[in-house]
Amino acid sequence: MAGLKNFALALLLIFSPVIQSSEPVSPHVNTVERFIAAFNAQDSSAMGDLVADDIEWLSIAGERVTVEARGKGDLIESMDGYFKSCPTCRSALSGVVSTASRVSVVEISSWQGKSGPRSQSAISVYEFSSGMIIRVYYFSEEK
Question: Mind giving me the DSSP string for 23-75?
Fold first, then answer.
């Protein structure tokens, strides 16, 4: 039942109207949106087009920081393996905040589990240099 509630919440957040602001949208936000669109299309090469050659993907769980990918080739290879292991995985953005060099988002991941639809939320921070994603900090879902 909790899985169904989480899935319903994810759908609500996905289809909720976006709060409009008079501030122009940062080009970095657009890049993150394109990155997530490429993820949802399971197109690791398109994801690679949006990152720096020396990209770092860091997963943070409590006090532990794990380097998941270092370098564009490593990221593409890692994502290819991930997509093979989870062909139904998708992500949606919520709660987007940007600064001059970073975009912070709540990512709502969804997939088809053995017992039905599943979802979870986590926070990601995308760091930019010269218009490219240079580092991603992925904070694991809270238990």
Answer: SPPPHHHHHHHHHHHHHHTT-HHHHHTTEEEEEEEEEEETTEEEEEEESHHHH
Each residue's pLDDT tens digit in the chain (143 positions)?
A: 444 444 444 433 444 434 444 456 689 999 999 999 999 999 999 999 999 999 999 999 999 999 999 999 999 999 999 999 999 999 999 989 999 999 999 999 999 999 999 999 999 999 999 999 999 999 988 76
Distance CA 72, CA 95 (A): 27
Q: What is the largest CA-CA distance in the chain?
A: 45
* Domains with residue ranges and CATH for the chain: 2-10+26-139 (3.10.450.50)
> For residue 119, how many C-alpha atoms fall within 13 Å in the half-sphere facing its CB?
25
Beta strand 132-139 with 51-61 is parallel
